Amino acid sequence: MAKFSRRHIIRTGLAAGAFLTATRCAAPSGTPNNPAPGPQVNTNQTKDVTLRLIGTGVSQINDIRDKAQEDLGFKFDMRALSTEENNQIAITQPGQYDIFDGEYFSLPLVVPSGNLQPIDTKRITNYDQIVSFFRTGEFKGMPVEESQGTAPFRVQYLTGPDSKEFSTTPTDYATLIPFQYNADTLGYRPDLVGRTIESWGELFNSEFRGKTSILDIPQIGIMDAAMVAEALGLMTFADKGNMTRAEIDQIIEILKEQKRSGQFRAFWKTFDESVNLMNSGEVVLQSMWSPAVTAVQSQGTECIYAPLKEGYRGWGGGIGLSKNLQGVQLDAAYEYINWMLDGWVGAFLGRQGYYSAAPETARKFMSAAEWDFWYEGKPAAEDMVDPFGKTLAKAGVTRDGGSFDERFGNIVCWNSTMEENTYLVQKWNEFIAS
Amino acid sequence: MSETWKTLKPYALITPQTLVFLMFLVFPILMIGVVSFWEFNGYSMTPAFTLDNYRGVLTAVTFNTYLNTFKFLGLTWLATLLIGYPVAYFLSFHVPKLEWQILLFLVCTIPFWTSNIIRMISWVPLLGRGGLVNQMLLGTGVIQQPLEFLLYSDFAVVLGMVHLYIIFMIAPIFNSLMRIDRSLITAAEDLGASGFQIFKEVILPLSAPGIAIGSIFIVTLIMGEFVTVRLMGGGQSASVGKLIQTQIGSLQYPLAAANAIVLLAVTMLIIVSILRVLDIRKEL
């Protein structure tokens, strides 16, 4: 009898264990893997509208949602996803979102799917306040005008209201309204590197063997690698943003060689990983996103976001409208975009180190000291505090890379989706497996 | 009437489960099979019948990736068996009280309670360049330079997998050890068998099905593993699961589906070979 009960208990225990294991796989409602059911609109008033946003973690900020709900009177339901998940849902599950907050380089994939509707620029109040590079491709004659890759301007306009084709000249039909963007570069630990880093080429310098890192997202990692290879004179590209198969082969060979010699400590895929690598000192020099540098600094670790002589790799994200939006919901979405360009959001993002689509409107909501530090590249007149209460820069400090014009104007390439994307992914897997 | 009911009853009983299996296991796998023959471009898939995806799978890269996955599998299997068996043996033969057995068994599940993020972060202060292990070894003068291979290496990947999956080896072995009739051991002792002989002739053969079930768990878990491989390998180690994940991340679903079908076939093959060697039907 005792034996029976013993066996019985073990069996039950095992079953319970199996059950626990199984349930761990099921995501709770409302998370990316198990989206909550859509909202129901009962009456014809924007008050009852709920707009569902999808976007990456850096753009889905609760404070912005709360302020938007307060100012606009309708509701927002935000989902923070990884870059890859965001694109996947945008393309494969159009019914899951009303507003798509994605990166420009995903547009060559998202737009042909027909899941976005063009934004009527005539309905955007402050459209002419948006930085000229996004609207016209011009920026004070600086290098960014010649930048390679999926530059926002190249995918900013569609040829018509029902078009899936990009227009090379401005039209009234925009794909995205820029939300946040920045100039990315290498980040390093000055205490562990011991000198100033001035070139992308340093990433392959044997001095830092086993202490560097790049991104394990093919479309972004390849651009960093290309910047390094060009800086070192290892190879040249006709267009980094649209490599040929031969160029992909060559750059992957260079990467493999570096991996074999133990140049990299680790590759990272998410924001937190890069912060963790840098903070622990496992990596002293790596390709980074600007908020990651801020996160490292806010934990009390010195980290410099190096202005490099070859220029920056740019990225930008914006707000797009789902083709499912119509009537009162569509009106609400336009209201949101106009609110977004009104300045409060721009100032909020500006205090985190991002740039606003329409800096002049954001300026109204920033103090003179904040504006001078973040946009003009002047020494901080007072401590710079981010919207979450963390001090990002002490008084007297200057922003790495200087002013908005100096940083944005020197972007030489953008995150890109190339024509040979499939081949790139295949070769990237080969690199990881080598 | 009651005769008909008697014949129908078993079928009625298995119907719900069969439906669940068909809908949530068989149907998705069939769909993956179908999609693996489709054509795709950057943003969409089109129904078609092409073998290009399989041609894309059968390359040297995939082969090397499989070799690497097998290496992880072999090492992890060996380590979980060598560590898991003594643990299960101790639990079932040397812990006298049932309450204590259950409690200690639960302790073995602790590694499973933490999330991936926690695991990712917590290994760095332990195994990192300036981590506890390196500090200790440096402090005692055993090494002069910090050991780099402790983290972001194949070693770290295997360590992470053993840490995470060992419970799947312990549980079935523990279960089969508990079911061994203790009078068999007394009988062997009476017949003058030594401790080692008892283990070799009685306990090991009777617990073999437990080892087989544990091995099947380990095989299925590790062949598809990608999270531990990425986090512990620092993204520098390849596994089939990670390969598929990268393809899915780049929206190359048909290619990923073809890879998944090949992976399924390889995994099934390994499991069938295990079942050929050991009969686990006694356990079920």
**The CATH architecture of chain B:** Orthogonal Bundle
Question: What is the mean predicted local confidence, pLDDT of chain A?
Answer: 86
Structural class from helices and strands of chain B?
Answer: mainly alpha
Annotation, overall tally of beta strands of chain B: 2
Total discrete domains of chain B = 1
The topology string of helices and strands of chain B comes to HEEHHHHHHHHHHH
Indicate the low-confidence ranges of chain B by residue numbers. Answer: none
Distance separating the two termini of chain B: 33 Å
The parts of chain A where pLDDT drops under 50 for at least 5 residues are 19-44
Helix content of chain A: 25-40%
Rg of chain A to the nearest angstrom?
23 Å
So what's the CATH class of chain B?
Mainly Alpha
- Strand content of the residues of chain A, in percent? 15-25%
Tell me the quaternary state. Answer: heterodimer
Silhouette of chain B: flat
Strand content of chain B: under 5%
Distance linking N and C termini of chain A: 58 Å
> Average pLDDT across residues of chain B?
89
Q: Which value, in Å, is the CA radius of gyration of chain B? A: 24 Å
Largest sheet of chain B: 2 strands, antiparallel
Topology readout:
The complex is a heterodimer of chains A (about 425) and B (about 280).
Chain A: H1 2-25, E1 50-56, H2 62-72, E2 75-81, H3 83-92, E3 99-103, H4 107-110, E4 116-117, E5 119-120, H5 132-136, E6 157-158, E7 166-167, E8 173-174, E9 177-188, H6 190-193, E10 212-213, H7 218-231, H8 245-260, H9 271-280, E11 285-288, H10 290-298, E12 304-305, E13 312-322, H11 327-340, H12 344-350, H13 359-363, H14 368-374, E14 384-385, E15 391-393, H15 404-408, E16 411-414, H16 421-433
Helix pairs in contact in A: 7-8, 8-16, 9-10
Chain B: H1 2-35, E1 39-40, E2 45-46, H2 52-57, H3 60-94, H4 98-108, H5 116-127, H6 132-139, H7 154-178, H8 182-190, H9 195-223, H10 227-232, H11 240-249, H12 253-277
Antiparallel strand pairs in B: 1-2
Helix pairs in contact in B: 1-12, 3-7, 3-9, 7-9, 8-9, 9-12, 11-12
